[in-house]
Amino acid sequence: ERLYISCFEGAGWRDDATGRFHPVTGMPTSPSSLFSAGGRVFCTGQFLRELTPDDRAVAVLRQSFNSVVPLRDAPGAFVGGTLTGLRLLHFDGSAWRDEGVVPSVHGGIRQVSQDSDGFVWALGYRGSGSWRVDFRAGAEVTAPAEYFDDARGLPIMRGNDPLRFFTLGGETLTVRSGKLLRYDRAAARFVPEDRLESARALDPIVTAPGADGDHWWLVGSPGLHLVHVIPTAENRWRAEPLSGGSLHGFVPSSLHYDHPTSTIWISGRVAPISVDPHWNSTQPIAPLRATVRRLSTAAGELLWAGSGVEPLHALPATVPPTQNSLRFTFAASAFTPNHRGATRLVFRTRLEGLEDEWTSWSPTPWREFSHLPYREFIFHVQARDLEDRESTVGALTFAIAPPWWRARPAVAGYALAALLALSGIFRLRTRALYRRNAQLESLVAARTVELANQNVELARLNRLELDEKISARLAEEKARLEVLRYQLNPHFLYNALNSIYGLALSTPRAAADMTLRLANFCRVALVRGEDDRVTLGHELDNLAAYLHVEQARWGDSLVIEIEADATARAVALPPFLLLPLVENAIKYGGATSPDRLTVRLAACVEGATLVITVANTGTWVAAADAPGAGARPSDLSSTGIGLTNLRQRLARYYPEAHELTTEANDGWVIARLKLSVEFSS
Predict the structure, then answer these.
(1) Do residues 646 and 577 touch, judged by C-beta distance below 8 A?
(2) How do residues 369-407 score in pLDDT, each as one tens digit?
(3) Over the range 629-645, which residues count as b (16 or more CB within 10 Å of their CB) and which as e?
(4) Contact 143, 132 (CB under 8 A)
(5) CA angle 333, 336, 339 (to 5 degrees)
């Protein structure tokens, strides 16, 4: 038998007599895995190749594979993972035959393995899920497959998750986000692995079975190192880390336990390495100690030097204030090289008195400070090696002396001079305040008497003025309300009488009916008081009499549309609140509408607000005295009293609870009135 080892640089076999490895030629790219079939050795990668006894790699199937495993219950049958999916292969002992892609598995496959139940686990690439394919009924491309993702306890691979499945005690395991997961047959999903006793979480990257039911795992964080998984009871194991250094900087691809020599072989991006799992150090690893070696100025002048145990050059009690830009040099001794024999240290520092936190880890063995303040400091340094072992903290205490003008005697003199100056200023200020206080007391007494007399007179005048204003305002309000009550538009009466005259000549019956409606409208307008409340429904009925008169005058040239729901009709309003809006709509709309005049009146309740909209076709006509109104037809002249009176009535009945807006939009002039109303329960 031969021991074949592959790595990213190629493949080779070991000569047991000399212990040397012989390379295999004819391999243009790095092999991804090795497997045996019929006593022959094959490797995956670019094409499926056979490693012949004369140490050559010969392509036997022009198809690239990431990994290939045999089907346990189907001799000669193999499955392999490719960029295009899971492929079924057959080897008859002399030639390979590609049976095609298994259609139930979608996407590229990175690694395949077979569990103790005969299922094949196919691992997809990062960002995709995994598959379990059932070949137990036979090696056929029609084999069914199940998809596993977060819904079945197997999260989609992200970041640096190890890309492989492996087994422990006949159960299928994998790692996701640093957590070890096991497939639970009863639950048909992945659950956290709880059969393993370990002091910390394990994330195996590559695994291999050992000699007596044990396993060897190469785990990741913190640091790459070997773990021996030993059975302790039925379905129970214990994980023991292997003594020795870590494999820092090594990128593994496979792990193999060599039974004849009891040696562990690890292959990866560089040449493979071997590990003796039975080796133990006879001496404890020396502790890691960090020390400050030198303290110098920015100009290079040495202030202090030490060996880590005793100073070679005494540190002065204080550093002169002119030398407050310093450079610290530090070091540590490392005794644990990695697999290549190299060591690597990183440092972090903190200057107590200036910094509260440690710096980040850095390989730089020195640090500089510029223009340090004048005070005492303690410089701390700590090191860390490849094993992530942190050293003891080295410290150096020093102080930067202040200049003479900041020394204690100078500060004491400054304080004494300031106290004397403050004492003199205080005395002068106190005398001035006493004089000012006496003057203010006499002035306040005189002004108090004067203000008391003025206050009495102002109170008398204010009462007289207030009474007069209230009386005048009440009289003015009463007169205004009376004017609003009895004020009818003479232009409306003029047009109504002309319409009745025209109907009397042609249709006497219609003229008589129109006369009765006009009389009824005038009776309601003259009899009803200003403070009487009517519902919106009654208001619309009263408007109907007015609109009937206008309809008779305009004929088919006037279209009237009224829409109000039952809730809006029940709202109480002051009488004739809508008449000015309807009169303006007919008057100005009739003068500016290009064809037929359409007047729409709508009312609805939105929450606690009654919204009334009066719209007419035509264009907006500004008031006669409005700036920029320009010349208008004589029949459009108006004093604007209708809208003015409406706004006055709204201000009286709905103070701070109404909104009247007008706008012109797309051939329509719209007046919208919003009233805050209360509804009885």
Answers:
(1) yes
(2) 999 998 899 999 999 987 778 899 998 988 888 887 777
(3) eeeeeeeeebeeebbeb
(4) no
(5) 140
Given pLDDT bands bounded at 50, 70 and 90, which one contains residue 305?
confident
Packing angle, helices 490-506 and 536-554, rounded to 10 = 60
Element (H, E) at 145: strand 145-148
Beta strands across the sheet bearing 326-332: 311-313, 302-306, 290-297, 326-332, 366-369
Q: What is the pLDDT of residue 485?
A: 47
What is the β-pairing status of strands 196-197 and 236-241?
parallel
End-to-end CA distance of the chain: 100
Phi-psi category of 251—alpha, beta or left, where left has phi over 0 and alpha has psi -120 to 50?
beta
Helices (H), 507-604: 508-527, 536-554, 566-569, 579-592
Report the DSSP beta bridge partners of residue 326: 297, 369
Query: How many residues comprise the chain?
Result: 681
Name the token pair of 596.
């037929």
Report the Cα 637 to chain-centroid distance in Å: 63
Name the amino acid, one letter, at 123: L
Answering whether pTM is above 0.85, one says no
pLDDT at 187: 94
Give 431's contacts (C-beta < 8 A, 6+ positions apart). Answer: none
DSSP letter for each residue of 412-440: HHHHHHHHHHHHHHHHHHHHHHHHHHHHH
* DSSP 8-state assignment for residue 316: P
| Whole-angstrom distance, CA of residue 508 vs CA of residue 397 | 122
Ordered strands of the 346-352 beta sheet: 346-352, 376-384, 394-399
358/356 Cα distance (integer angstroms): 7
Distances (CA, A) of 539 to 274, 420, 516: 104, 89, 18
Q: Is the peptide bond between 508 and the residue preceding it cis, with omega within 30 degrees of 0?
A: no
CA atoms of 426 and 422, how far apart (whole Å): 6
Strands in 119-124's sheet, in edge-to-edge order, are: 109-114, 119-124, 130-134, 145-148
Average pLDDT over residues 115-138: 90
Strand 558-564 and strand 597-606: the pairing is parallel
- In this model, does residue 268 exceed pLDDT 80? no
Compute the C-alpha angle 42/44/45, nearest 5°: 145
Summarize pLDDT for 537-579 with one digit per residue, the tens: 988 988 887 888 888 878 889 999 999 999 999 999 888 888 8
User: CA neighbours within 13 Å on the CB side: how many for 167?
Assistant: 16
DSSP string, 456-477: HHHHHHHHHHHHHHHHHHHHHH
Strands (E), 156-285: 166-168, 171-176, 179-184, 189-192, 196-197, 204-209, 215-219, 225-233, 236-241, 252-258, 263-268, 273-275
Which pair of tokens denotes residue 159? Answer: 């970041």
Residue 84, both tokens: 């295009």
